[in-house]
TrEMBL record:
Belongs to the bacterial ring-hydroxylating dioxygenase beta subunit family. InterPro entries: NTF2-like_dom_sf (IPR032710), Rng_hydr_dOase-bsu (IPR000391). Pfam families: Ring_hydroxyl_B. This is Uncharacterized protein. PANTHER family: 3-PHENYLPROPIONATE_CINNAMIC ACID DIOXYGENASE SUBUNIT BETA, BLR3401 PROTEIN. The keyword Oxidoreductase applies. Transmembrane segments: none annotated. Pathway: Aromatic compound metabolism. Keywords: Aromatic hydrocarbons catabolism, Dioxygenase, Oxidoreductase.
């Protein structure tokens, strides 16, 4: 690949990243999902690795997990803010 091709590719990738960021900033999650191929993996690594499937990552989402994550965003559900079941619910002791 020559310098002109490299510069063109860099420009195209940069434009795509800005476009993706704008979609996410606007919370247009269905449009973000449309950017993906079904076999694509959304990976947020903790550190560099040769095989991200074999190490711990912040995210390692296939198509189903991406869609589940977006559904939680759209529904406003977060497991960390869900109420505890009653036997585990905090209680006030006087």
């Amino acid at each position: 690949m020559n310098t002109i091709d490299n510069e063109s590719l860099l420009w195209q990738v940069t434009q795509f990243i800005w476009h993706e960021a704008a979609i996410l900033d606007a919370k247009e999650y269905d449009a973000w999902l449309d950017l993906w191929q079904p076999e694509g993996l959304y990976i947020i690594p903790i550190e560099d690795a040769d095989d991200y499937a074999a190490v711990l990552n912040l995210c390692y989402d296939d198509d189903k997990m991406r869609r589940d994550r977006i559904k939680r965003f759209q529904d406003g559900f977060s497991i960390s803010s869900a109420p505890l079941p009653s036997p585990y619910a905090p209680c006030l002791v006087l």
